[in-house]
Amino acid sequence: MLVPSLALSPLQHRVLRELNLSDLPAPESGAMPWAARGLDADDVRDALPTLLWGGLVERKGGVDGLITLTPLGSASLHAAECDELTARLSAVASFADTVASRAAPRSAGHALKRLAEGMWTLAQAEAHVRSEGQ
After folding, report:
1. Total-model pTM
2. For every one of its 134 residues, what pLDDT tens digit does the chain have, with 9 covering 90 and above?
3. Distance of alpha carbon 19 from alpha carbon 54, whole angstroms
């Protein structure tokens, strides 16, 4: 089964990740469960219509019930995470090719670690290695 691609904002992606852990009360019911997860209930309330429309989440028990992740939402979340990891691995491979012949091992190792963690972009890692080599 193909997963339809719905471009997720960082907030929508985060909401799906949290709902993947457990169902949460609708933000209209109170901000505390969302705040405990580091999310603002008003922001979640604004993000929900798109997620509901896309079939990624559903409401159970009416407006003040629970927000749950649908199977499509779970598949979309995992597809987005796979795409992110694929892009990161591609950047790591590209960076390794770039620095293989001209970087000091310590500088390259540090930059490679940051790139693999997702802390730096490919451009930042390459700039770090270039600045250390000068």
Report:
1. 0.70
2. 455 566 788 999 999 999 999 999 999 888 898 999 999 999 999 999 999 999 999 999 877 789 999 999 999 999 888 988 898 888 888 877 776 666 566 778 888 888 888 889 989 988 888 887 65
3. 15
